[in-house]
What does this fold into?
Amino acid sequence: KIGIDSFLLAPLSMDEPGLWYTKILERENVSLSLCAFDAPSIPTCFVTDVHGKGSTRRWSDNGAAEFLKTMHIPTKEILDGFDAVIFCNAIPPITSRIAVNMEKRNIYYIPGTHCVGHADIIRPEILDKTDIIFGNEEEAPFIFSTKPFSHGVRLVVITRGKDGGVIYFPDGTEVTFPAIQTKAVDTTGAGDCF
It folds into this structure.
């Protein structure tokens, strides 16, 4: 929407959810030329208790994860032509393959809830090409356990909901920032949007 050429690399599907998602992406001029369309369905997050005391999230890959293992990865030249490569809630079958096929350190990495309790999600080969890593307070211990700064990561940004967040630097400096004051109907995905 702000005039940036955007590409998506993901397994998409031709069922009702996949076609709905594809239509929105095409309307917003996101290039789907790097996508595969043979997954049985797209991954989904079912959210319950949206307006209660907190959302409960249940993720399902709907069979799409298997297709990540066989997706075509663009060449180094294509990947290094991007200003930024954003990994958002992506899992190693694809993130590791992309990272090792890159020369530039231009990954903005949002490991997402997958990293909580799964030590093998955030891998060294991904961190070696990551510029900035984002997470929330629940994910922070798992992110820091991988020692991102020893891999050359420039910043770690941890969001803390209504308490704003903290930017961590390799030299130990910490900079806090306030939360944006707004009326949120639901905060699901707010960290990814940030």
About this structure: The radius of gyration is 17 Å. Residues 55 and 188 are 8 Å apart (CA to CA).
